[in-house]
Specification:
By secondary structure, this protein is of the alpha+beta class. 23% of the residues lie in helices and 28% in strands. It has one domain: 60s Ribosomal Protein L30, Chain: A. It comes from Agaribacillus aureus.
């Protein structure tokens, strides 16, 4: 299987041994994105809504680098530290996927990288 690493300076640098995204013949696999501002390299400290917006901006930037858009996303995985944040995360997430949203799951987890409150990964079809 041939694969291409997708990278953009408009999304956060990976904080470990992984790529922002990997493109194959049929899919773009985007690694979990957390609310890091790629300009400053700092975590977004605002509300869970502010953090979710940043995560979605990071995903959008990676999709753009892979010559795709949010319309091409077929599956997302959302990880939250507190399921009580679900409604706020869902509200912001829904603004990015207003028509024909992708399949997804939302899971509460005990801890996320850098102790953030939300992380989202996705798969887009080419």
């Amino acid at each position: 299987m041939a694969k291409t690493i997708v990278y953009t300076k408009n999304a956060p640098e990976p904080i470990g041994p992984y790529s922002q995204a990997v493109k194959t013949k049929r899919n773009l696999y985007i690694s979990g994105q957390i609310p890091i501002d790629p300009v400053t390299g700092e975590l977004v400290k605002g509300s869970i809504k502010d953090q979710t917006h940043q995560v979605m901006k990071n995903i959008s930037a990676i999709l753009y680098a892979g010559k795709l858009s949010l319309n091409d996303v077929v599956k997302c995985s959302i990880f939250v530290k507190d399921m009580n944040d679900f409604a706020d995360v869902n509200e912001i997430y829904g603004k990015y996927f207003q028509n024909d949203p992708p399949a997804r799951e939302t899971v509460e987890v005990s801890r996320l990288p850098k102790d953030v409150s939300v992380e989202i990964s996705c798969i887009a079809e080419i």
